Structure to design on (138 residues):
């Protein structure tokens, strides 16, 4: 093989391979930078589900967020963001009270005001849980 072909192959590997390796290392190192700290849990009346209020922390460059997920009672909270509700602020300052109105309806006792990043009205695929917001049954 001629010298210029060897140089071209080496340059190609350096230009494509090295950035791919660096990007892979960056993704590997930063993939678990976020963590969840459980603040409170409320179990549904039939004991099948639990609503978990937690703080999700993704390092010094992000602010506090209060999040809520609905899980089967036997499941542990994974290192993922919420599945129903996200609000800026630390749970000790902004955490809404949760109240199960029935086996299939959860009330987040905080009126929606547009400051939420996420506020789902249903959760689940086959047996849906209805989520309402505001004090009481609103």
């Amino acid at each position: 093989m001629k010298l210029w072909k060897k140089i071209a192959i080496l340059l190609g590997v350096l230009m494509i391979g090295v950035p791919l390796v660096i990007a892979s290392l960056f993704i590997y190192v930063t993939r678990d930078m976020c963590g969840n700290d459980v603040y409170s849990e409320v179990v549904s009346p039939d004991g099948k589900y639990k609503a978990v209020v937690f703080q999700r922390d993704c390092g010094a460059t992000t602010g506090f967020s209060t999040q809520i997920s609905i899980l089967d009672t036997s499941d542990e909270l994974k290192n993922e963001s919420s599945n129903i509700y996200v609000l800026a602020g630390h749970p000790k300052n902004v955490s809404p009270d949760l109240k199960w109105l029935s086996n299939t309806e959860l009330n987040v006792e905080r009126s929606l005001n547009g400051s939420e990043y996420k506020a789902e009205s249903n959760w689940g695929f086959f047996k849906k849980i209805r989520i309402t917001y505001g004090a009481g049954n609103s």
Residues 79 and 105 are 25 Å apart (CA to CA). The chain has two domains: 1-31, 35-133. The chain has a mean pLDDT of 86.
